[in-house]
């Protein structure tokens, strides 16, 4: 397959940036302030969903109803403000090295994220100069359904003019893995959070690595 490969589709949070600890903390604190429960670990399980979808899951579970549009906008705004108040997330160790390998092979790196956090999107160019083209990115602003629906990765294939067998997905979240798998794309999981690796394999990962560093070191010898 590597002979056919034209592009590598990267999730952003937990893959390119070590930002998930901040996301999980922000979700936990904001939900608690509204009398709702979303544990830090559960936030990792919802990673990749749109903010609205995550809020609705909690509302349906605890209040037995959907959140109103006003509630969604208010809670997501609070979460974003809190997230942006934390120290800037560092580049994930191994991500830059892997991107350099990918570029040197003539492959196109693309970002496919459920994030609508403009602060992180704007930092991609600063942290990974010359790696990503904005017109090839898929974010929360582009999709109707979001992960675990395959729409974000199907949209990435469309934007890149790619067939499913010409791309590889790199994900750290169960829902993201599920989305890549459903889109028919070879999906590599990197377990950069607190979840059991089996959760990622159960979601449909074709390969599992314990870190981006490990994936970067193994990249040249991958038989995909």
TrEMBL record:
Query: What UniProt keywords are attached to this protein's entry?
Result: Hydrolase
Query: Transmembrane region positions?
Result: none
| InterPro entries documented for this protein | HAD-like_sf (IPR036412), HAD-like_SPP (IPR051806), HAD-SF_hydro_IA (IPR006439), HAD_2 (IPR041492), HAD_sf (IPR023214), PGP-like_dom2 (IPR023198)
Top-rank taxon, per record: Bacteria
Give an example GO molecular function.
sugar-phosphatase activity
Q: Which PANTHER family match?
A: FRUCTOSE-1-PHOSPHATE PHOSPHATASE, GLYCEROL-1-PHOSPHATE PHOSPHOHYDROLASE 1-RELATED
Q: What is this protein called?
A: HAD family hydrolase
Please report the organism this UniProt entry assigns to the protein.
Bacteroides acidifaciens
Q: What is the lineage of its organism?
A: Bacteria, Pseudomonadati, Bacteroidota, Bacteroidia, Bacteroidales
